[in-house]
Amino acid sequence: MNAKLSENTKPAVVLLSGGLDSMVSAALAIEQGFALHALTINYGQRHVREIDSARAIVKRLGAKAHSVIDLDLRAFGGSALTDDVEVPKEGVGQDIPVTYVPARNLVFLSLTVAYAEAKDAHDVFIGVNALDYSGYPDCRPEFISSFAETARLGTKMGVEDRGVQIHAPLQHMTKADIAHECARLGLDPAWSWSCYDPSPDGQACGLCDSCRLRKKGFAEAKIEDTTQYAA
């Protein structure tokens, strides 16, 4: 990572899951001159390896702060990521998959904006992607723009005309584009974790939607993905 943090840079809060997209978004925030304040949400997902990856990414990027909060969405269920439901491995389909977590980005962005307001940060970064993705409705550009207006109306800093800007720098990128950005920024893909259903020995399964999309992106970009896959 080439960008250097300065004591004088303004803060930005990055929703950092520990996945590839959020890692690249965090690095882009630093490259743009922001001091990185990372927020990671442990929501009871089965792929908790992401949390460890988020902590490692924060250290490697030199973040100013990192908060991990617990929000157990297993109480709601309704998703293969939080419930006793098998993660599909047949390939990416056309319908919204069972790995969709109800209103996850709506909930997470609300928490991220609240955290940003407490930090007096007027910039929030999220690594959503609306091209090569699993079809989740809360990754679409119209959702992000709508939420930005909601945040303006529902916060003190928005009412005082010091609103928050929602940055989604990967929104219109393919996974190959994101792989290229990862390489350009000097990031090791293996720092991040994308798999929904790790193997017993701790490898990425290689067959879930997230693994398939990630592997396809790096293959199309002709860039090595240093992640260890079971298949």
UniProtKB/TrEMBL annotation:
Keywords per UniProt: ATP-binding, Ligase, Metal-binding, Nucleotide-binding, Queuosine biosynthesis, Zinc
Leader sequence residues: none
Pathway info: Purine metabolism; 7-cyano-7-deazaguanine biosynthesis
Residue ranges of coiled coil: none
Biological process according to GO: tRNA queuosine(34) biosynthetic process
InterPro entries, per the entry: QueC, Rossmann-like_a/b/a_fold
Gene3D superfamilies: HUPs
A molecular function GO annotation: ligase activity, forming carbon-nitrogen bonds
Keyword field contains ATP-binding: yes
Sites where the protein binds ATP: L16, S17, G18, G19, L20, D21, S22, M23, V24, S25, A26
Catalytic reaction list: 7-carboxy-7-carbaguanine + NH4(+) + 2 ATP = 7-cyano-7-carbaguanine + 2 AMP + 2 diphosphate + 2 H(+)
Cofactor section: Zn(2+)
Annotated cofactor note: Binds 1 zinc ion per subunit.
Family recorded in the similarity comment: Belongs to the QueC family.
Name used for this protein in its record: 7-cyano-7-deazaguanine synthase
Organism in which the protein naturally occurs: Altererythrobacter lutimaris
